Records
---
Amino acid sequence: MLGDDLRETAERSPAGEAIVAAGGRMTFADLDRRADKVAGGLAAAGVGVGDRVAVVLPNGAECAVALYGALRAGAVIAPIDATIKPERLSYVLADSGAALAICDREREAVVAEAATETGTRVAVGVDSLAGAGDTPLPADAELAAILYTSGSTGEPKGVTLSHANLTFAAASIVEYLEMTERDRVLSVLPLSFGYGLSQLLTCMRAGAALVLERGLAFPGRIVRLLEEERVTGLPGVPTVFAVLTGLRGLADRELPALRFLTNAGAALPVQMIEALGETFPGAQLFSMYGQTECIRISYLPPELLAAKPTSVGVAIPGTEAWVEDEEGNPLEPGGTGELIVRGPHVMEGYWGRPELSAEKLREGREPGERVLVTGDLFRTDEDGHLYFVGRRDDIIKSRGEKVAPREVEQVLETVPGVKVVAVVGIPDELLGQAVVAHVEAEAGSKPDPEALRRHCAEHLESHKVPQRVVLHEALPRTPNGKLDKVALVEGG
């Protein structure tokens, strides 16, 4: 089971630091002991194998205790963003059928309001669930987690992942990052986010310390933590790295312990890759790609970054990924098609949505095996390395032609002064969809929208050139830090 990693690490290195957060420090032995007590408390409260437990807590030791305690009880965890609104929380509690929700005092009113509509019991603080800690723990639990997608393209969907799925994914990531008990990973990514949760799981498996911070509200604090905690690993998304590379003087600071950076969630522009190299010259950058439906799909070995900066690499260890055409035939290098993923990390399905699960999963080569039909468009090069082209449902149809937003975004990202780009399709009577580029500029810069259109015209076919370029002080983002393209489409 997933909690076995923590148990084994606690036995091997009881005094090692497991969690460092605003509330203090917790050793592996402490985390293991407190998780056992929560498991006992949940069992005493009638929560058993397969019952769903929602965890509505910010990054911190309490959240880690709640997650592992629920897993130890045989429950299915549903980590939920701590900033969630009552209406959305009601939807998630109802959809998951959560028997119990764990929150803190700060979020008690919001969780209680949502829970009244679903009949979900509310526990305020993990200590309210502390049991004897010696309750026999179930060994027959299969499903481990329901991770809800951000819902940037509609209602959130619950991705179901088994203990085997998550244990395998953690082991594979630890392998290619070469993580050990000497590592100290600093994460601002919420544990409710698949990428954030994987930081907890990989650190517990490797015996590494996880330094948790609640977002980027105070970038200077991130810098201080990098130095004082001698951080070796820094996971991020483009918005996180944009903030850090924009800090004056950070490149002049010595961070001898920092050995790797990881990026997922969205592609890094080439200029951001260059900026990261200048800001963190001693660290290797792993460009990665994943989906909640299998946590991680691919990574690019850092030694290939200079030669293939726009690639997301190869399938993670122990898995396969390939590109198919619409008839299901593998494509030759250079051809654009749908990415298919095979491996023990592929999800069980979507919670309560068998028809949607059938669309995304199909039978594999082995009996009972599932492969994931990602819905994402990719191509490969002659060496078999993967390149993201776009999401199938993001493809814009303008003038009867297909436009991949990522292709337009990459062209605009090369313009000095352009920080972030989001390209969307807006309904248009004549064109079907009009290509519109939304641009967030670097501080102190104000690019000319018409000049940006001319730049696109020099590098793209006419049907791919944006009809409009809209400048923003800041582009809208989801709670997970991804660009919120739905908000841009709805705003016209």
---
Amino acid sequence: MANMLFSGTIITNGRGKAVCTATGMSTEVGKIARLIQEVGPGPTHLQKRLAELGKFLGILTIAICIIVFVAGTLIRKEPVLEMFIVAVSLAVAAIPEGLPAVVTIGLALGVQRMVKRNALIRKLPSVETLGVTTVICSDKTGTLTKNEMTVKKIYANGKIIDVKGSGYNTKGDFLFDGKKIGPKEIGYLLTIGALNNDAQLSDGGVIGDPTEGALIVSAEKAGLVKEQLENNYKRIEEVPFSSERKLMTTIHEFNGETRAFVKGAPEVVLGLCNSIYEDGEIIKLSDEKRNEIHKTNREFADSALRVLGFAYKTVTDNESVEENLIFAGLEAMIDPPREEIKAAIEKCRNAGIKVVMITGDFELTARSIAKAVGLEGKTMTGVELDKTKDLDEIVEDVSIYARVNPEHKIKIVEALNTDFHSYRNRHNTPPITQSKQFPQIFHQATEQ
């Protein structure tokens, strides 16, 4: 949706006026809540099995009671009323009144064991549900990844430089061809990233945009602290970022000069530049160099890195602050996977559990993260989901869903349920709990 704000969103920069168009359950968050309410909790596998057991015992008991009643009255010539009482007594005795209590105690013991493994169980049936899980659907951001943007690559002075470290830890080296380089080569690029920035680092986290937080961290890895830089480069004006311009410009006073620092989409920034800063010199930006920068940008993007371009200029009174810029370089960042995720997914795979990633991010980013954490399978986008009419027939082959919304998530889970039951019926496959290997599989699944 264009030109819309959503309840629950944190605004980190800019100014504006908004008109309320919906409240309560009519908002987008309310629609998600309604979807969850409409789905509702279905019967668990244990409840279904107990229902099947109850039905079987009921039919078997009635059959035995009829046989006893008929044999007693016709063969042994016992009184009809007496044999009727015997049959009813047999029926009452055959009903396992203690079964619910036994099941409850068993689940309670399961909860106790899970607590010892640092797992909090809110409802007793969850213990049993874990034992019959065959698919885990997981979000990406904050679940498979750390939800911490980290600069991993820098392009400056015609070199592609690797940046070590992860998250918002300000310790890390800069490497070119595997050798450590000093921050002097990329210092001005990092300075622009730190000053053209509205975020702040606080107690190991970021206040503001995570992308801008990553730029501050990369600068501090080179010893460039934002607060100290701001004392030397006093900000006097700002042209905020917008999705139409794809740029943000800040104007600073430095040693009697006025300088403009620009960051934004690489292709947009590059289009405003006619010079480039390399090895301490400002030279004309040739077509060959432009093509090299575009190629580097594509390589970073193909690795699921989010890329920003940076430029600057000394401002004069008779020209725009966003023309005839000097290109400074690129910074490419990613939300890194959690260190323990790959091993956890491998344990699930060994236990016979398939892991599916469902995310609202771009397809390229989703595939890259999936590859990093060891997920394999086909990729499907939300647009393709809307066009697919027989999702339950292909859902088994898809492991990565990108650019999806909450309605798609429910559709995927329902298709997985349908596919599981149809597979069981086609192949007459018993549930995993009936397998001789189940105790070992359950232990592996709960170990993580």
---
Amino acid sequence: MHEAAVDWSDPLSAAAYKAWHDHLSHRNDVVEPRGDNLLTLTTTSSDGVVLQESLTVRASDFHPVKRRVQFDDHEVVEIAELAYEVVPWSPAVDNWFEAITPSAGVATDIPSPLLLSRVVAVTPAELDEAELRSLLALQQLHADTERIEVVRTPKGIQVQGVVDTDERKRQIDLQLRSIPHVIPGISSYRDLDSRPSAQSEIHSLASVSVDAQPGPIEKYCEEKGWDKDECRKISYDLLNSSTIIRQESHKIASLLTEFSSNRPLTLTAESMLNELILQHGSGLTAAMQQQQRTLAISGFTVSMSEQNVTAFNAGTLVAVAQHNLDLTKELTYAGDDRSRPAESIFTDLVGSLAEIGTAASGIAAAQQHASVSSSHDPANKR
């Protein structure tokens, strides 16, 4: 505990915490109210083996009551005050202490009012909030489209991945270290280049040539007499919108599956979950609108009519989004003699986009109903 500047004669010392805090060259501080008239200062840093420390004090007199130290090996040490009060001296108080015997000459040790515990796991509610906070942080940093993975473990949330530059790595790392129970593991391509490369498993390469024919959309454009650049733009817009539709649908479905209604969430976690779903829903809507405009330019109109949405769920949304992407690939990629006419694929694509709209509406309605039900459930107000 020397690295954490914990003095066992006074482990809750604010001065010791300050000494550790002030020697850090890279640090980030967050102060949060904890209820019951408590304030918690959390300091995260990339210096040394201590990833994060927090000190909780009473807001009324700033008396320290708890200290938490998180190491880079995922171990956590918590020091908490069991009791603190000033009482008048009376004969009854003598019973709290052992008598001084003449043979001893000194008083026996007074039982410490401090409790030291080594924590090997955090609560599911804390993990929920940590995971959702990390996902929101990545979303705000526009890092959710990078090669980053959020992994939930019994000891905390590990965020791993590779980004382009060291500066980008520091930006994401600093934001994630401010979140309790989150352990960043972000690398840059420079980090990867500095590591010894593994022995290649590829022993030989075979080359083949394919005599590809124009894709269905190219034939369609030729028949319409459209410019090749315009045709390429239509192909790009369709592929781009389909890819985003698939990504956003998958993220919404993953959130709904992991944080299902069968598992109660704290109000804070539920609020963050709704915000994430709302943001991904906005991305999904924007991509759908882009594809709708592109289909209209191509001569096909999508009717987003209201349908019965009660049968749709997260799995349905992913399935129809994947079908939409498959149809776009079929339309734009190089074809052969067995390729379907573009008009047939366009027609299926129109129907696919309408199905996505219906599935998304069904999920939105279900979420709204679940949110209203949860707000009236006293067991969830914690």
